[in-house]
Design a protein that fits this description.
Elements (H helix, E strand, L loop, with lengths): L4 H4 L13 H11 L3 E5 L5 E6 H9 L16 H4 L6 E2 L5 H11 L3 E6 L2 E7 H7 L2
Parallel strand pairs: 3-4
Antiparallel strand pairs: 1-2, 4-5
Length: 131
Amino acid sequence: MTLQAKDIMEPRVVSVPPEMTLDQFEEFLTIQGIDGAPVQNAEGEIIGIASKTDVIRALRFQTSERFSGLREGVITVGDIMTDDVMFIPPDLPPREIAELMTEHKIHRLLVGDKHHVKGIVTAFDLLQLVR
C-alpha cells in the first residue's frame, strides 16, 4: 500500500479570522502547539495561511507599506497572511507533497479545497516518515 496525504495529514485543522491581531495570533499558536494556521473569512472560505515565519517577517519589515498597520500599533493576521494557499488532494503521495513544498518553498499544505479542508500536511509530517 502506498502512503497518501490522507494517511499522514493532521485531520484537526484550526483556522483563524483575518481580523485577529498579531498578539492574539501568537498566543493562539502557542496554546494550540502549532506553527501556522489557515485564515478563514466569515463565509467559511479559506482565504490565506499564516505562520510564525510571517509574524517574524512582519516584525522585520515593519516599515514597509504592506505592514503599515504596525506603525499604528495594530497588525492583523490578514496583514501578514500568504493569500496564495495551496490545496492538495487526499490521494497525493508524500513524494509529490515534498516536491510541491520544495518547489514553492512552503512548509504546510492543506488537504481539500478552500471550502472544505480535510487536513493539513506539514514538512514535519514528511520528516516523520523517514524516522
